[in-house]
Design brief:
This protein has 148 residues and is mainly β. The protein has strands at 2-4, 11-13, 19-20, 25-28, 34-37, 52-56, 59-60, 63-68, 71-76, 85-90, 106-112, 122-127, 142-146. A five-stranded mixed sheet has the order 4-11-10-6-7, with no helix packed on it. Strands 3-5-9-8 form a four-stranded antiparallel sheet, with no helix packed on it. Strands 1-2 form a two-stranded antiparallel sheet.
Length: 148
């Protein structure tokens, strides 16, 4: 899905697999993390449990939200309910570093499977990048990993 702000200068076009799990996915491991990747780095103050929400029916799923660069991750506080249908939403309050918000909320849904994943987590990105030079003293070091 292509998300644009309508102003022409800041595009929120999706990069390949914009979100994980995929829309309408079934058999999603009950211990999965949800993620959404934006086309540009986002303002951390605008990516939170208020702007990245997950529900099972009308019931909100408790979790935490983290942001590394352009990827937001929602980590449920407990396993998903096997066989339940979930909806994830990135709301229009999410904005890029220039303060430009999404033009519309982005919604996707999926169905939880009956087991946890046996696939070990993988590191998707690190900040600073591997081999980076000139990193300022006191910089935050982060690694984004996803269990699937």
């Amino acid at each position: 899905m292509d998300l644009h702000n309508g102003r022409g200068t800041h595009s929120y076009a999706a990069h390949g697999d914009f979100h994980q799990p995929a829309n309408l996915a079934t058999g999603v491991p009950i211990g999965t993390l949800l993620s959404a990747t934006f086309s540009v780095p986002m303002d951390p103050a605008t990516i939170s449990v208020s702007t990245f929400t997950v529900t099972q029916g009308a019931t909100p799923v408790s979790g935490t939200v983290t942001l590394v660069g352009a990827t937001a991750t929602f980590a449920p506080l407990s396993n998903l309910i096997p066989g339940a249908v979930y909806q994830a939403v990135i709301r229009i309050g999410a904005a890029n570093l220039a303060g430009t918000p999404l033009a519309a909320s982005y919604v996707w849904s999926f169905t939880a499977g009956s087991s946890t994943s046996t696939t070990p987590p993988t590191v998707l990105s690190t900040l600073p990048a591997s081999g980076a030079q000139g990193v300022a003293l006191g910089s935050m070091i982060t690694a984004l990993s996803v269990r699937r």
